[in-house]
Amino acid sequence: MNSTPEQSGEEHPAGREVVVSLSRCDTQDARTVFDVLATAFASDHPMGETPTSASGPRPTVWVTTVDVSEPRAAATPARLTEPVTVDAQGGYRAVDRLRTHLTGAFAVSVVGTAAGDQEQEVRLRLENR
Q: What per-residue confidence (pLDDT) applies to 11?
């Protein structure tokens, strides 16, 4: 017998959490994207935190997890220095909420998807409106 309560739908982390990864972009652009997300969603990165670049020849990857279950505010337009590629992984509804939120701040294009049974990974391209 399993004593762990079963979680489904919105209660399960996959229904509310999205892992967001940014790479090969300027530090300021990473901060801008993370700030847009932190304005609306609970995040493991506080608003205004500047991501730090890794040293060495490897590309830096910035990662945050956001809880999209209860948006606090609508996104407002934000400026990037160049287009940014975002990889978002989570439940179907959660990733869709994240994408919809980002459209309030940026022009968003879906450039790739990988679907699983309960989760999906979506690659988005963010550009200035």
A: 58
